[in-house]
Design brief:
- The chain is an all-alpha fold and 161 residues long.
- It has 8 helices and no strands.
- The protein has one domain.
- Helix 3 runs antiparallel to helix 4.
Length: 161
């Protein structure tokens, strides 16, 4: 039993298996599930720093696809009869006015915990342009992972800046 557990742990520490796990975790954490892609990203980065750019691409892609999934939820929910009650719409009045001012560019902040996922759903609900939303989702989510990697490299650098 102990040897099979050890074999399993060795298997998941193989870089490409770990990358798949990071990608899946990044996707799931971009949905409404309360998960942290940053933790999986950082743990993988610590174990395999030589794969930093591949890790950034995989995590960004997974997280962006999760945001696109949220956009689709909002888009299709808008077409569902009675999917939201009017008192909720009235509460959203001020926020939606602000968001519509910036449109798809608001999705640069889709990585922010708690507000990011509903923001992507709202973009789909409001039928903001799909490809524009994808672009801003990708930029915001990728910059976040680059910043995490930058600070990791900076903290492990003996020369500093």
């Amino acid at each position: 039993m102990e040897s099979s557990i050890q074999a399993f742990l060795q298997a998941i520490s193989i870089p490409w298996v770990g990358l798949t796990s990071v990608g899946v975790m990044a996707f799931l954490s971009a949905t409404i599930l309360p998960l942290s892609s940053e933790a999986a990203f950082f743990l993988y980065l610590v174990k395999f720093p030589e794969n930093m750019w591949t890790l950034i691409v995989v995590a960004s892609l997974g997280n962006t696809l999760g945001g696109v999934f949220n956009w689709q939820i909002g888009f299709f929910a808008k077409n569902t009869k009675d999917s939201i009650s009017s008192p909720k719409i009235q509460k959203m009045g001020r926020i939606s006015t602000y968001l519509h001012q910036f449109g798809s560019k608001s999705l640069l902040f889709s990585w922010v915990p708690i507000i990011g996922d509903p923001l992507a759903v709202y973009a789909g609900w409001s039928k903001w342009p799909f490809w524009s939303c994808c672009l801003y989702l990708a930029i915001g989510k990728t910059v976040r992972y680059i910043v995490i990697a930058y600070f990791y490299v900076l903290s492990n650098s003996s020369t500093g800046l």
